[in-house]
């Protein structure tokens, strides 16, 4: 099949023509059948009418010739024959010839009484009346011709309807498929040129194509955004990993060059290498995690209240700060349990890391319009100008405490990325009198 024949325009038009022709064929066959029966009953009624008129004539009438003519005066081609039981046979005008020809005609098996002759068609009826047999032949050509004429007109009109209908459908489908062709063309262009700014043009109608084009554009935007993020991520990650590696190599060189002459440099350098390699390990683990939760996700009904409660207990057992909580029971979420755990561990861990041992950490979970988790600490807090940046990958606030605390700047990026996946919101605000409150909000489903 050629491409044109496979196209929507050709396919839809040919189907439409096939359906329309089929329907019209059925209608026309029904029309012919009904018309044929109507004509048949019309002829039979006419014959019956003549028979009824003749029935009323008494046996003793002596003017049969005139009588039969009067009876059929309506149509000269009709004929009547009266056979008296013990007397002569009377014919209407030209009746003898008509009945002689009728005797040679062919009777139809379905329409009883119809007799076909060379150019004529007759309806024949025989009646037994008091002392005589009345035979009536009704000429059917005129009615049949009229019916045929109507049939031809109807077929022509139907053909016209098919032609016009096909043209209209061809025109409209063509319009739609043109929009689709244009869309495919634009998609090919995007694929070939890899133009990152180009999107599909969205037509106003038909709405399905409008919807498809909008969805495709949305997908394209998301994919480009993701690719941009991935690219940025690789750059940031390489940069972040290179810095400690360069420092480690520097210390190794130092030990190699001066270690034997000045053994006192060895111990601090080894310490440094140990600390930095530990940091590298944590960072690579976190990087792996960041990539992993994008790839696999096992969602199920999770009792978020129980999960938070368990994480709070772990925190209480491992941190010097006082941990208080206010957890509403029976808050359920359809989510990946490990991801929810990750959110809690990163936020709780930060509250612990960035506040002194004598501070307080308060955790609150409640569900109203949304499911809301607050992690509040009374630690060092975050300067306003940094609040927007702490969710970026590898960003760390350069305060005296932050620089002393081990970290890679990935924890909050992980939280932000998980929260975003669940269409949630992550924000940070100042706590009173000091410290920070991290808030995660999930839509209720
Ligand atoms: P990390 O803690 O490994 O450095 P995060 O992404 O978890 O990385 O945090 C980014 C930065 O945000 C931290 O380095 C820290 O400066 C700041 N931060 C996060 N949580 C808190 C908090 N509770 N109090 C003060 N500063 C915080």
UniProtKB/TrEMBL annotation:
Its main location: membrane. The chain crosses the membrane at residues 12-37, 150-173. It comes from the Bacteria. Residues 236-445 form the Histidine kinase domain. Its EC number is 2.7.13.3. It is an enzyme of class 2 (transferase). It holds the Pfam family HisKA. It catalyses: ATP + protein L-histidine = ADP + protein N-phospho-L-histidine. It is found in: Membrane. Keywords: Kinase, Membrane, Phosphoprotein, Transferase, Transmembrane, Transmembrane helix, Two-component regulatory system. This is histidine kinase. It comes from Candidatus Enterococcus lowellii.
């Amino acid at each position: 099949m050629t491409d044109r024949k496979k196209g929507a325009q050709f396919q839809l038009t040919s189907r439409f023509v096939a359906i329309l022709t089929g329907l019209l064929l059925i209608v026309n066959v029904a029309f012919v059948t009904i018309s044929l029966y109507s004509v048949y009953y019309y002829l039979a009624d006419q014959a019956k009418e003549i028979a009824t008129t003749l029935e009323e004539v008494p046996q003793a009438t002596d003017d049969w010739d005139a009588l039969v003519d009067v009876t059929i005066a309506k149509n000269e081609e009709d004929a009547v024959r009266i056979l008296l039981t013990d007397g002569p046979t009377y014919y209407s005008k030209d009746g003898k010839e008509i009945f002689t020809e009728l005797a040679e005609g062919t009777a139809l098996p379905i329409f009883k009484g119809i007799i076909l002759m060379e150019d004529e068609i007759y309806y024949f009826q025989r009646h037994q009346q008091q002392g005589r047999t009345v035979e009536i032949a009704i000429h059917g050509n005129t009615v049949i011709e009229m019916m045929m004429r109507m049939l031809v007109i109807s077929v022509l009109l139907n053909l016209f309807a098919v032609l016009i209908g096909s043209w209209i459908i061809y025109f409209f489908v063509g319009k739609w498929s043109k929009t689709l062709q244009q869309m495919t063309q634009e998609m090919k262009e995007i694929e070939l040129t890899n133009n990152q700014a180009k999107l599909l043009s969205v037509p106003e109608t038909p709405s399905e194509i409008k919807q498809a084009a909008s969805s495709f554009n949305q997908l394209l935007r998301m994919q480009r955004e993701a690719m941009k993020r991935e690219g940025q991520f690789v750059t940031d990650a390489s940069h972040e990993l290179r810095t400690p590696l360069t420092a480690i190599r520097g210390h190794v060189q130092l030990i190699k060059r001066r270690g034997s002459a000045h053994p006192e440099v060895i111990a601090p350098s080894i310490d440094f290498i140990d600390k930095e390699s530990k940091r590298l390990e944590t960072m690579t683990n976190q990087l792996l995690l960041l990539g992993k939760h994008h790839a696999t996700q096992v969602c199920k009904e999770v009792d978020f209240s129980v999960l938070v409660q368990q994480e709070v207990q772990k925190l209480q057992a491992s941190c010097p700060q006082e941990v208080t909580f206010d957890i509403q029971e029976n808050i359920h979420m359809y989510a990946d349990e490990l991801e929810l755990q990750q959110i809690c561990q990163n936020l709780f861990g930060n509250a612990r890391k960035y506040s002194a041992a004598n501070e307080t950490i308060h955790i609150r979970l409640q569900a109203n319009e949304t499911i809301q988790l607050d992690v509040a600490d009374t630690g060092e807090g975050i300067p306003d100008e940094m609040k927007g940046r702490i969710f970026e990958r590898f960003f760390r606030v350069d305060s005296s405490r932050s620089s002393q605390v081990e970290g890679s700047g990935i924890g909050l990026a992980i939280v932000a990325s998980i929260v975003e996946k669940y269409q949630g919101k992550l924000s940070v605000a100042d706590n009173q009198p000091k410290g920070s409150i991290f808030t995660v909000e999930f839509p209720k489903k």
